[in-house]
Q: What sequence folds into this?
C-alpha cells in the first residue's frame, strides 16, 4: 500500500520543530510500524535527507523504548501494543499518518521523535525499591507465603514498561499511572510494606517536582497503556498516600 | 569441587570498607549482569560508574527474556540438587564448559531466588502462596521459577530497583545514552574507557581502577536474531583488540521456537519462549501431499488427523520428547524442513500445537469445578483460560505479529539466532586476560559450553553480578588501594580518544553510496548460510573470504549521513557493524578449526549415521581462546584444556 507520512522533525532540544510530509510506497501489511520507518529512513538516506530519529530497541514490546504518537494516540490505533508491535495491516492504502513524539513538559524532545524520559528514572531513584542488600543471607524465598491473588495483582502492576504512553495520552501529562504501578507492586507484597510510607511520599514528591500534571481521572492512560495497567493502581496509590500522610 | 568456591572466597584478598570508598569501578551495560553487579558493588562501598546506550538502564535486553530462571531449590521435591543442576548444565553444554565455574553457578542459584523475592520480584505462586515451578529443556525436574512469560523483565526491574537505590544514594553515577568506544590501558592494566554521548556526540574520558564489561552477546552478527536492535559486540570486541582473549566465538545458540521470517523488510525476529514446549507439541504433516495442500491454502492444520501428523521430537527422542535441549530441537526442525515438510510459504516453519494441552487442562478444570468433562466446548474454554494464564502475553504477541489466533490454530515456528555461549575469555575470578578488566553475563564464555540450557542465562547473569564478581574483584583491587584517583589527562587516554575520534571522522566524511544496514544484512546472510545451524569446511572458508571482502568494501563505500556531534543513530550503528565485520571472520575461523560437532556447533563432517552431532573428545576437549594479532583471521589459538573431575564425559543422549 501507499501512504503519506506527516512526521515531526526537530533537530535537537533547543530547535524549533515542524511537521514534514513524506510519501512512502509499497508498504507491506506484514511490516511492523518501525520496519516501515526503517524503509522510509533508507529512502531518506538515499536522497541525502537526514533520517528520522526515533527510539527503539527490543522490537518485541517489552523494553518500553519506542514512543511514537500516531494519529493522535500513543503507540497508534491498536490496543495493548507498543509502536514496535503495531503492524501496518492496521492501516489502509492511501492513508495519511501523523507521527509525533510523546509530548509532555517533563519529556523534552531529544531529536525528532525521541524524547528524554529520565524523569521516570528519577522518580524510581526516590523510592522505587526495597532496601535489601545482596548478601546471600536473605531468608528462604518460601519463608513468607503470599496470597496468590495479591501476588498476581503485584505482577500485573509490575508489568509496566515505563514507556510513558500514559503521560503522553493524559491531557494533564500526569504520571500517576506509572508511579502508582510501582507503588502498588510493593504495597501488595509483604517485602514492600516495611518502607511503604516513605516510598509513596518520596515518589509522589519527586513526580511533582518533575513537572508532571495532576490526575483528573479521565482514564485515557489506562486505555492507551500497552500493558493494560489498571486505574485501580491509582486508587491504591491514593489510599497509600493518604494513610502515609496521616502517619507522617 | 563442592568446597572450591567456599574455600576460594575465604582465601582471596579483601578491600576494607574505608578503602572501597576510594576505589572506582566502571560497569558497561545494565542487563541482569551489569545492573546486579553495579548495585552490589555500590552496596559494598565502591564508587560505581555505569553506562548504557539505551535511554534508561531498565531497557537492556535481559528485559525480553521470557520463560524463567533455574535454581536448585528442589521445592517440588522431585530429586533436584546442586549436583543435578551442575550435571545438567555440563551435559547440556556438551562437555565444553569449565567444571568449577558451573558448580559455583549451581551453588549460588538458590541465593538468587531468595534475593529476588526479598527485592519484591513477583514470581508466579500457587494457591498455597508458595513459589511455582515449570520445566525447561534438557532436564527431568521442575526447577524453573517464572513470572508468566516476562521473567526477564521482572528480574531486570528487580536489579534496576537495586541500582536505583544506589543511584539515589549517590553511590552509582548512571550514564544513559552513552556508548563505550574503547578501553584505556595504563601499564597493561584497565584504567578507564572512552565513551560517546549519543545525544550530542561528545567524546568523554572516564577513569577507574577496574572495568567490568557486561554488554551481552553478539547474536546480531547474524543481522536477524532475537536480540534487540542495539545489541552489539563492540565493548567485548574493543577489549579483545586490546589484549583480552575471545573464547569459542562459534558457539551460538539457535533457538528452536521463534516466529518465522515474513519478508525482506524484517528487522528482527521474535522468540516464543521455550516454556511453551512444556505444553506445546511440535509437529509437521507425515504426508508431503498435506504439506503442499497447506502451503497452497487448501488445507488447515487443524484438519489433519492425528495419525497423519509427525510429532518428530517425540518420535526421535522419547525420553525428553518436546523438551530436548535447544540445539537438538533446532536441528530436528531444520532436518524436517530441509526434507520438504516445512509448513509455510517459504518452507521454513513447523507447528507448535497447544490443542492437546488445552483439552487436558480443560478436563482437569471441569473435574475440579464439578462440571461436565464431556462438554467439548466448555472443556476447550476452560483449557484456554489455563493456557492464557500461563502464556497469555506470548500468545498475544504471536497474534499481533502473525495475525493468527494460536488458541485456535497451531503456532508456526522456526529456529533463530538467540544467544551466544562464546564470548570474552575469563578466569575463575571472571577477569579477562587484561588485568583489571572483567567480563560477566552473556559477554563472557564460561558457563554454558557449546549449548546453553533454557532458563540458565538469567541464572548466570545474576550469579555473576550479585554473587561472584563483587567478591572476586576485591582480590585484584586489594593491591590497588594506594593508587589514588585515576588521572585521565595522560598520553594513554589521549591516544585512545584520538583513535576513536579518527574513526568517527572517517565514517562521517566517507561519503560512500551504501547504507550501514545494507552491509549488516549482507554479513547476516553470509553468517546464516555458512555459519548457521550446520557448517562445513568449504562454506566456512568461503565465509572467511567473503566477510573480509565485505569489510574492505564497507570501509570504502559506506555512507554515514549526518554529523559527529549530534544524535546520529547511523553513526552509532556504523561503529557496531564495523566490529561485527571483524568478529564474523573470527567466528568462521573458530568454526573451521573445530572440526568436531558439539552442542550448537554442528559440523556436517562430524555426525553419527543417524545424523546426531558427533563430538571428538580426544582432540577438542578444550576452550578455544583467541589472541588478537591484527587481522581477525590471524588470531592465535590459546587452548585451555578442560578437565572433568566430577563428571564422567559421555555421549550426550536425550533418547
A:
Amino acid at each position: 500500500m501507499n501512504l503519506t507520512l506527516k512526521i515531526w522533525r526537530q533537530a535537537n532540544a533547543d530547535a524549533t520543530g515542524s511537521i514534514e510530509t513524506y510519501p512512502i510506497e509499497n508498504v507491506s501489511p506484514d511490516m511492523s510500524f518501525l520496519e516501515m520507518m526503517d524503509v522510509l529512513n533508507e529512502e531518506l538516506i538515499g536522497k541525502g535527507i537526514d533520517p528520522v530519529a526515533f527510539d527503539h530497541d527490543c522490537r518485541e514490546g517489552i523494553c518500553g523504548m519506542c514512543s511514537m504518537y500516531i494519529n493522535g494516540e500513543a503507540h497508534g490505533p491498536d490496543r495493548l501494543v507498543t509502536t514496535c508491535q503495531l503492524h501496518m495491516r492496521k492501516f489502509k492504502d492511501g492513508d495519511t499518518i501523523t507521527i509525533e513524539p510523546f509530548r509532555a513538559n517533563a519529556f523534552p524532545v531529544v531529536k525528532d521523535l525521541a524524547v528524554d524520559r529520565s524523569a521516570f528514572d528519577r522518580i524510581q531513584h526516590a523510592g522505587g525499591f526495597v532496601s535489601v542488600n545482596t548478601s546471600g543471607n536473605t531468608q528462604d524465598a518460601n519463608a513468607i507465603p503470599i496470597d496468590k491473588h495479591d501476588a498476581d495483582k503485584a505482577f500485573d502492576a509490575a508489568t509496566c514498561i515505563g514507556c510513558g504512553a500514559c503521560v503522553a495520552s493524559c491531557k494533564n501529562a500526569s504520571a500517576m499511572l506509572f508511579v502508582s504501578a510501582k507503588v502498588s507492586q510493593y504495597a501488595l507484597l509483604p517485602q514492600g510494606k516495611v518502607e511503604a510510607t516513605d516510598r509513596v511520599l518520596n515518589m509522589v514528591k519527586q513526580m511533582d517536582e518533575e513537572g508532571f500534571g495532576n490526575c483528573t481521572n479521565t482514564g485515557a492512560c489506562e486505555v492507551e497503556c500497552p500493558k493494560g495497567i489498571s486505574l485501580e493502581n491509582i486508587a491504591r496509590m491514593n489510599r497509600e498516600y493518604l494513610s502515609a500522610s496521616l502517619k507522617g | 569441587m563442592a568446597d572450591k568456591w567456599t574455600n576460594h572466597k575465604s582465601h582471596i584478598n579483601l578491600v576494607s570498607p574505608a578503602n572501597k570508598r576510594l576505589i572506582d569501578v566502571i560497569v558497561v551495560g545494565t542487563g541482569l549482569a551489569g545492573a546486579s553487579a553495579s548495585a552490589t558493588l555500590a552496596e559494598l562501598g565502591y564508587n560505581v560508574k555505569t553506562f548504557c546506550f539505551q535511554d534508561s538502564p531498565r531497557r537492556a535486553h535481559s528485559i525480553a527474556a521470557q520463560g524463567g530462571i533455574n535454581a536448585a531449590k528442589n521445592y517440588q521435591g522431585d530429586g533436584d540438587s546442586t549436583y543435578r543442576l551442575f550435571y545438567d548444565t555440563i551435559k547440556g553444554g556438551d562437555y565444553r564448559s569449565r567444571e568449577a565455574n558451573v558448580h559455583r553457578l549451581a551453588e549460588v542459584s538458590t541465593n538468587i531466588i531468595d534475593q529476588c523475592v526479598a527485592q519484591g520480584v513477583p514470581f508466579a505462586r500457587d494457591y498455597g502462596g508458595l513459589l511455582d515451578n515449570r520445566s525447561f529443556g534438557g532436564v527431568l525436574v521442575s526447577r524453573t521459577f517464572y513470572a508468566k512469560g516476562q521473567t526477564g523483565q521482572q528480574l531486570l526491574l528487580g536489579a534496576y530497583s537495586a541500582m536505583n537505590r544506589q543511584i539515589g544514594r549517590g553511590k552509582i553515577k548512571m550514564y544513559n545514552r552513552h556508548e563505550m568506544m574503547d578501553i584505556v590501558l595504563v601499564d597493561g592494566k584497565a584504567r578507564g574507557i572512552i565513551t560517546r554521548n549519543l545525544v550530542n556526540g561528545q567524546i568523554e574520558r572516564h577513569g577507574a581502577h577496574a572495568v567490568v564489561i557486561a554488554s551481552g552477546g553478539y547474536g546480531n552478527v547474524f543481522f536477524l536474531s532475537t536480540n534487540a536492535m542495539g545489541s552489539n559486540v563492540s565493548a567485548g570486541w574493543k577489549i579483545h583488540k586490546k589484549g583480552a582473549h575471545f573464547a569459542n566465538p562459534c558457539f551460538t545458540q539457535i533457538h528452536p521456537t521463534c516466529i518465522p521470517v515474513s519478508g525482506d523488510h524484517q528487522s528482527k525476529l521474535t522468540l516464543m519462549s521455550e516454556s511453551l514446549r512444556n505444553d506445546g507439541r511440535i509437529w509437521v504433516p507425515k504426508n508431503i501431499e498435506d504439506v503442499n495442500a497447506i502451503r497452497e491454502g487448501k488445507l488447515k492444520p487443524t484438519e489433519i488427523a492425528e495419525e497423519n501428523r509427525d510429532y518428530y521430537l517425540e518420535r526421535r527422542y522419547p525420553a525428553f520428547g518436546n523438551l530436548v535441549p535447544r540445539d537438538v530441537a533446532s536441528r530436528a526442525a531444520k532436518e524436517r524442513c530441509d526434507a520438504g515438510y516445512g509448513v509455510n510459504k517459504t518452507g521454513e516453519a513447523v507447528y507448535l500445537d497447544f490443542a492437546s494441552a488445552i483439552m487436558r487442562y480443560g478436563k482437569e478444570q471441569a473435574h475440579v469445578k464439578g462440571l461436565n468433562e464431556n462438554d467439548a466446548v466448555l472443556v476447550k474454554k476452560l483449557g484456554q483460560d489455563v493456557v492464557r494464564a500461563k502464556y497469555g502475553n506470548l500468545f498475544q504477541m504471536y497474534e499481533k505479529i502473525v495475525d493468527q489466533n494460536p488458541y485456535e490454530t497451531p503456532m508456526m515456528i522456526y529456529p533463530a539466532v538467540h544467544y551466544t555461549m562464546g564470548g570474552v575469555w575469563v578466569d575463575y575470578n571472571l577477569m579477562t586476560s587484561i588485568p583489571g578488566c572483567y567480563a560477566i553475563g552473556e559477554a563472557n564464555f564460561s558457563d554454558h559450553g557449546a549449548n546453553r540450557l533454557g532458563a540458565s542465562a538469567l541464572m548466570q547473569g545474576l550469579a555473576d553480578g550479585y554473587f561472584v564478581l563483587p567478591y572476586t574483584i576485591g582480590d585484584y583491587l586489594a593491591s590497588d588501594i594506594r593508587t589514588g584517583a585515576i588521572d585521565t589527562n595522560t598520553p594513554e587516554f589521549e591516544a585512545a580518544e584520538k583513535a576513536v575520534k579518527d574513526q568517527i571522522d572517517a565514517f562521517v566524511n566517507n561519503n560512500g553510496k551504501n547504507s550501514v544496514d545494507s552491509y549488516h544484512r549482507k554479513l547476516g546472510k553470509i553468517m546464516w548460510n555458512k555459519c548457521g545451524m550446520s557448517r562445513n569446511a568449504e562454506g566456512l572458508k568461503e565465509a572467511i573470504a567473503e566477510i573480509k571482502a565485505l569489510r574492505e568494501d564497507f570501509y570504502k563505500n559506506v555512507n554515514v549521513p549526518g554529523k559527529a556531534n549530534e544524535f546520529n543513530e547511523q553513526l552509532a550503528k556504523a561503529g557496531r557493524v564495523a566490529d561485527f565485520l571483524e568478529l564474523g571472520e573470527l567466528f568462521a575461523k573458530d568454526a573451521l578449526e573445530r572440526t568436531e560437532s558439539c552442542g550448537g556447533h554442528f559440523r556436517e563432517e562430524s555426525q553419527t549415521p543417524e545424523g546426531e552431532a558427533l563430538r571428538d573428545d580426544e582432540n577438542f576437549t578444550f576452550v578455544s581462546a583467541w589472541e588478537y594479532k591484527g587481522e581477525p583471521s590471524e588470531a592465535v589459538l590459546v587452548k585451555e584444556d578442560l578437565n572433568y573431575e566430577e563428571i564422567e564425559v559421555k555421549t550426550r543422549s536425550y533418547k
In short: Chain B touches chain A through 82 residues (CB under 8 Å).
